[in-house]
Every structure is written in structure tokens, then in C-alpha cells.
Amino acid sequence: MTIFPAASDKGPPAPAPDIIVLRRLNLFYGTFQALQDIDVTFPRQAITALIGPSGCGKSTLLRTLNRMNDLIEGVRIEGEVLIDGQDIFGPDVVLTDLRKKVGMVFQRPNPFPLSIYDNVVYGPRLHGQPGKAELQEILERSLTAVEMWGEVKDRLKTSALSLTEEQQQRLCIARVLAVEPEILLMDEPCSALDPLATLRIEELMQELKRNYTIIIVTHNMQQAARASDLSGFMYLGELIEIGSTGDIFTRPKDSRTEDYITGKYG
Amino acid sequence: MHREKFIERVLLLLALSSVGSLALITIFIFLEGFPLILSVGLKDFILSSHWAPTKGHFGILAMIISSVLVTLGAMIIGVPLGLSCAIVLAEFSPKRLKMVLKPTLELLAGIPSVVYGFLGVIWLVPLIRNYLGGPGLSLLAGSIILGIMILPTVISISIDALTAVPDPYRDGSLALGATRWQTVSRVVLPAARSGIITAIILGMGRAIGETMAVIMVAGNALQIPTSILDPVRTLTSNIALELGYAAGRHREALFATGIVLFIIIMILNLSATLITRRR
Ligand SMILES: Nc1ncnc2c1ncn2[C@@H]1O[C@H](COP(=O)(O)OP(=O)(O)OP(=O)(O)O)[C@@H](O)[C@H]1O
Ligand SMILES: [Mg+2]
């Protein structure tokens, strides 16, 4: 146990405001360059939206942050990605720990074909041997965080595939929250959902923002405008500009950003 | 137009005739064998091990037990081997390796069983005789040979089952910080369960029905085995060995044995179909 000396009224040093720092990130699929010289920082406990036309590299960028791109054959990555000051491609990074810290929600809800219960406790069971009581506590906390506890607490043993798409996506978020990540990557998490469900997931994101750093990819301009604090516009593998969502949508600096948000690229 | 109708008719006729001949075979087997089961009584037929067909004793229990044991042994050897092979090929190998090895393995299914039997007699039987004792021709030899023979079936169908598991499941698991092996054992295998069970059941059907290789290596002694080194005679072996000289009631008894096999294999295939469909 550490006792801070009374003289120190500063307490422990505040964490750096930026949780993710990318430096000159280049990514190649074989010979095709999908990301070009990306230099950007993502602040803590904020929602950053990535927008841009199809194929501009949004998902690729997202998948770099939890190293899911490692699974693709022929990927080459140059540059640095620092998360909490640590280079995620460094030699002493444990990949499974990185992915635990940087959770991901996919475009299509992908609950495992297991029970609701087993879906939520899947992650915690990977990273330790939690007891029954602990699992119950994680289960309740995670499902409450996505506002599903009341709905499903009486049918935890039923298959997750029996849920609606929205519930499935919430369950997938709960499943990620159960491993207590710091960062949530969301790749078009609402594209399979109807407008009402989309709004509800956005509300949920506002709740989650208090504890998590969220980066969301979206094709939906209104969603980016409504739900994010910062927006970044990507085009042909480059990050053209990033700034507060208000600025990007009302006075973009780059003409390509303007063309995109006014719908010229469709 | 006329031409097309004609081709359609011909195809229909061919399809019907193949189904028809299967039906005829079934009816024939039942007609030939059923009267004997009726006259001996089902109980004395399958629950007695006294087989002396020329003296009027028609108990096939020893052969049923031998068939079951040889098949069980084949599963104990073939399923873990085949399943791990399928897992490695489907989940842990580059796609290209899988594309080369899977057809090669399936080719193994095309090797005539007499070749497996021959290799068994030459290599395996002396090995068992010299190192484990007994005559060598044994339950164990039969199980090992059959275990190898069912590998292509088990591997190929299991690979198909694993490949059919959608990638988003794997991604979801890996993204939660699971290792590849955790992902396979906790998500992919449960998701592929019905396909894998089908693979095992079809492998089992193949093992029970196999005749030639078993005759060559299992020793064919008419007895209920007390050790895995004892020689045994399976249902199929018995039919093949005795049909050449059997006549009258003896011949009927062999057909009745065929009925028992037929029913066992029908049950296996039916359950495989049901399990696959339930997905
Ligand atoms: N596995 C891969 N192998 C080769 N090229 C790829 C691979 N994945 C993506 N690409 C290419 O990289 C580029 C960026 O793809 P990415 O999926 O990141 O785009 P995106 O911005 O997410 O598009 P969308 O909005 O359609 O999801 C595209 O040109 C795509 O064709
Ligand atoms: Mg994408």
C-alpha cells in the first residue's frame, strides 16, 4: 500500500491527455498503400468519428489500433502507434493484452452462437479464472452498462442469436465492456440497425464516453455530427483533416472535406 | 422444345431406376433374411453367440460385439487423429497448404481397401505379434487399420464444418484478446459441433461396413474377444467369408445378418442427416 506524503498536494501525475498517438503511419496491403503518412492523436474520453468515402481506409486505420490487421496476409506497417505512451508494435507488447485494452465492435453484430451469459463472460474467462460470484458481478455490470440487464436477466441461458439485431449489437458492446478496455473501436456499429435503434446506440455511446475513449467509423454524416466530439475526414488513405465536429461540419479547411460533407462524393 | 422434354424424361428415368434398384436390393435382402429371423426368433438371433449354421444355431452376438468393438477402437484411434488434423489444416495452416492437402487426403479414400489390408498384414500384424504378443491378427489390428481408413472421411467433413464457421466469430474472439487456440476451442469448435458429429458418424458407418481390410487383419475367429489381442470376426467378415458355400437356412442367416447391418447403418446415416439439418 502506498501512502502519499501529505506535502504532495498534486497527487499522482495526470495521464497524458492523448491516449493514442500515430506517427507517420503507412500501411500496405501487398503493394497497395492503404494508409499514407497518418499523423494524429486521439484524446481520452471523447468520441472521435472517422468519415470518408468507401475504401478510403477507415476500417484499416481502426484495425491497426488493435492490430487486427496482423491477421491479414501480406500487410506491412511503417511508423508508430503509441497507446498510453507504449509502441503497440514494440517487442514486449503482449498482443492479447493490447486487444483486451483496445476493444472492438464490428459492423455486423457478431455474438457467438452461445448463450447470452457465455457471450458476456467470454472475455473475462480468457484473461483469468474468475469465480462464479465475480462473473455474475461482471455480467450484471456489463449488461447494465448497455441497458440490457432488465430485458435479459431472466433468459441469460438462451442463445444470443435469438436476440434482435439491436440487442445483439448491445450484447457485443457488453461483451467488450466485460474485459474492461480503455478504448472502444466501433466500425460502423449501427449500419445493420434501424434509425431508432441507431439513436439508442448513440445515446449509449454518450454514456460510455465518460469512461472510455471511443473511435467510431461511420458512413452516416448525421451520426458523426450528432454523436461525436471530434471528426476526422479520410480520403484515399490520407487523413485530410481532423478537428472538433462543429468545425469540420461548418467550416472545413479542405475543399475535399467540404465536397464530402455536402454530398458531392455521395 | 421436344428435345428438351425428351432429355428431361430420360434423366428422370435414370434417377428413378437408381432409386428403384436401391429399393429392390433392400426388399431382396429383407425377403431373403427376414423369414429366418422370424423362425429363430429375434432374441436367439442377436442375443446368442452360438453360431453353427450347419447344425441349426444362428446366434450372431459374438459378431455384433466384435463389430462394435472394432468400430469403437477405430473411432478411438481415428477421431482424435482426424479431428486434430482437420483443426490444424483448417485453422492453423496457410490457405494454400489446405488447398493442396485436402484433396490429397480425400484421395486416400479412393485407395482400395484390399491395399490397406495388405499393408496391415505386412507391417502391422507382425509388429503387434512381436511386440504385444498374441497372433497379431487381432481386434487391435482391425481397429488400427479401420482407424486409418476413416481418416479421409473424418478429416474432410470436419474441415468443411470448420470452414463453414463464419469469420466474424473468429474476429470477435480474437478482438477480445483470445489466442488462436482459445478461439478455436471455445468458439469455432462449438459452432462447428453438428458438422463434426456428422463427420464422426459417417466415419463410424464406414468402419462398421468395411469388410475386406478387416478380414485380412482381424483374424476372423468366432468368439467374444476378451483382449484387444484376440482375433475377431465381424458381421461383415462373416457374410463375406461364408456366403460362398452357404445354402438354405445358412444363406438366409447371412442375409439376416445383412439386415442387422443395414439397420445399424441406416440409423447412423439418419442421425447424421438429422444432426446436420438441425443447424
Ligand atoms: N485484406 C485486404 N487486402 C487488400 N486490400 C485491402 C484489404 N482490405 C482492404 N483493402 C483495401 O484497402 C482500402 C481501404 O479499405 P478499408 O476497408 O479500410 O476502407 P473503408 O474506408 O473502411 O471502406 P468502407 O467505408 O467501404 O468500409 C480499400 O481500397 C480496400 O480495397
Ligand atoms: Mg470499412
Give structural notes.
The complex is a heterodimer of chains A (266) and B (279). Chain A is α/β, with parallel strands linked by helices. Chain A has a single domain, classed as 3-Layer(aba) Sandwich (Rossmann fold). Helices cover 34% and strands 25% of the residues of chain A. Chain A has ten helices and ten strands. Chain B is an all-alpha fold. Chain B has a domain at 63-243 and 271-278: MetI-like (MetI-like fold, Orthogonal Bundle). A two-stranded antiparallel sheet of chain B has the order 1-2. In chain B, a hairpin with a 4-residue loop joins strand 1 (51-52) and strand 2 (57-58). The longest helix of chain B is centred in the first third of the chain and has 39 residues, at 2-40. Classes of the chains: A alpha/beta (266), B mainly alpha (279). The site of magnesium ion has 4 residues of chain A, from helix 1.
Biggest interface goes to: A-B, 26 and 18 residues
Report the portion of residues of chain B in β strands.
Answer: under 5%
CATH homology superfamily of chain A: P-loop containing nucleotide triphosphate hydrolases
| SSE string of chain A | EEEHEEHEHHHHEHEHEEHH
CATH class of chain A: Alpha Beta
The shape of chain B, in one word, is: globular
The average pLDDT value of chain B, as a whole number, equals 93
Which small molecules are bound? adenosine-5'-triphosphate, magnesium ion
Q: What does the oligomeric state look like here?
A: heterodimer
**What gap, in angstroms, lies between the N and C termini of chain A?**
58 Å
SSE arrangement of chain B, N to C: HHEEHHHHHHHHHHH
Flag low-confidence runs of chain A: 1-9
Radius of gyration based on Cα positions of chain A:
19 Å
CATH topology of chain A: Rossmann fold
Q: How does the helix and strand content of chain A classify structurally? A: alpha/beta
- Numbering strands along the chain, what is their spatial order in the largest sheet of chain A? 6-7-8-3-9-10
What are the segments of chain B in which pLDDT stays under 50 over at least 5 consecutive residues? none
Number of helices of chain A: 10
Q: Which fold does the CATH topology of the domain at 63-243 and 271-278 in chain B refer to?
A: MetI-like fold
Biggest β-sheet strands, sense, barrel of chain B: 2 strands, antiparallel
